Amino acid sequence: MQILIEEIYPFFKSAFQYLDLEEEILQNLLSAATKEGHADVALPCHSLSKILKKSPIQISLELSDLISDELNQIAEVSSMNGFVNVRASDAWLSEKLIKITTNKRLGISIDDSRRFVVDYSAPNVAKEMHVGHLRSTVIGDSIVRMLLFKGHTVFRENHIGDWGTPFGMLIEHLLDVGEHEAANELNVGDLDGFYKEARSKFNLSEDFAKRSRNRVVLLQSGDEETIRLWEILVSESMRYFNEVYSMLNVLLIDSDIKGESFYHNLLPVVIDRLNKSKLLVESEGADVVYPDKKWMNREGKIMPMIIRKGDGGYNYSATDLACIIDRSERLQCTDFLYVVGTPQKQHFEMVFDIAKMAKLIDNKHTAVHVNFGSVLNQDGKILKSREGNVIKLVDLLLESISRAEDTIKLKNPNLSYKERIKVAKMIGIGAVKYADLSTERTKDYIFDWDKMLSFEGNTSPYLQYAHARICSIFAKSPISRIEITDVKFMITEKEERLLARRLLIFANVLDEAIETYSPHRLCNYLHSLAASFASFYENCPVLKAPNADIRASRLALCDLTAKTLNLGLDLLGINSPEEM
Ligand code: ARG
Fold it and tell me: Considering 35, 147, 199, 455, which has the largest number of Cβ atoms within 10 A of its Cβ?
């Protein structure tokens, strides 16, 4: 419990001074107790034994003696097996709870503001968004929300794939199909069909391939008519992507689109910079850079990063270097996050390495590949539709909403039709997002409807239900939620203690989730909070509490739990209905 550590630290510091022990040792040793319940904070004395020439048990006894009186108001101090154990007092818990209950931010501090770019979602024009893009969108969006809440400046960048050689064939196919027809196909989300047809013509017809190649040249040179056709492809695909974004309720908007084409004009600058730093070399006709760190290909040869191909076309890597220049120089950002799947790990390592070598970034910058694993089906294979195609995300989300609606119909038949539709969206979308966010991002996870939509376990419906349940307590309560201001918490039962402790570590958990760009930590926390609320509610009558003071205190615990769940879910980009 970090807030307790901060509070008791000065007392330990004086005790350490008294024993002639260095403060650094204290900093390393004093930490949250590993087992909840036993103690909140512990100090193992075993490593002090050598320095003080006494047994750990003796030392822990001595230290406890030195501080226990002084910590009297804050915590109970005891010694056991060479550990000094500190356990927050009920009075201290109450006092801290009051502080966060009366605070709009629930006690969450604002950090020194840094300037972030979060590169996320990034589907490819005229190609179906796959579940990987769904992961990127959902994880990236939650990271953005957390950073914003902590007071940082955040630029969202949707680095869509909207440039390069495939656009020659896509434009030619568009002409063959007819502009109107093509636009229709794209904006209903039949992106994969469109792409596949173009690709197969390209492979089968020499004439089509030739037209496509010419078209790429026209596109690169900015030919007006070609750009107009290209814009149809982009805007119709974006219309479909936006439909997915709006269903998902993510923050991304059109002005966040900074696709590959956006960086096109910076590509010669990349070449220039790499030349100036004497990094660019020729290899088999291409312009390449050898990163400081060595990567080997299958034949055991050192692998360069290709910046410009032999035919003059720029590579994906060139665009990513251009992004770095733009983000650091124009946007003046210091922190670059790339929420992209693990398969691109090597790409980003190489890009970051080269960016450092070319001094596009230096020590004040951090560039992080916030990588993530795959979404698998029940057989452990990459999730695909029954026909083996990429799953259409809109269909997936609609199915989730409809499944959620079926469940609500059973659970709460009295809900009006309008409410049911609204709640079904919140639950259905929340379930898909949460299933993704609650898995440690670097791991793969199995897409499982029953599990993600279950009202039990570490799921979004479970958390949403806990929140709605608290709202329903207040619907029956004589005291309303806004009336809970200067309440006195009375923490006396063990379930109250556990709930109080969990409520108090929210700020800390959030910091950890942000530091490691790991929304799953926030998920796990919210789940443990909801679970401790459930056992509190089962064992400690709220509206039927033994007296008015206890009732007020318990209602305040309910209120703070609901606020924490609400804020936590909000930071994950998930709604909390008040009724469900
Ligand atoms: N469009 C790419 C893909 O679908 C992802 C782009 C990620 N961002 C970046 N700056 N490279 O794989």
Answer: 147
